[in-house]
Amino acid sequence: MALSLRDTIEVAQDVVFCELDGEAVVLNLDSGTYFGLDPVGTRIWELVRQCGSLQTVFEAISDEYDVEPETLERDLLYLVEELVTCPH
Hints:
alpha+beta, 3 strands, 18% strand
């Protein structure tokens, strides 16, 4: 699945999220698959849950962190693709 910044993502009902000290765990209750997220990944997850628009997430992270746009786009899309394509 090839995503782009034009895509919008919706978090599935069977996915839970727990944050502790700026880091988080995302767990798919159906499959048992989980991901550990660092503080930046946690912020991305929060933004995806709030708005879903990857372009909006990209813009917010770009404003909040000192990162090259190409690096941010690549890393954002990689993280979201990993979360979307995890086994169900």
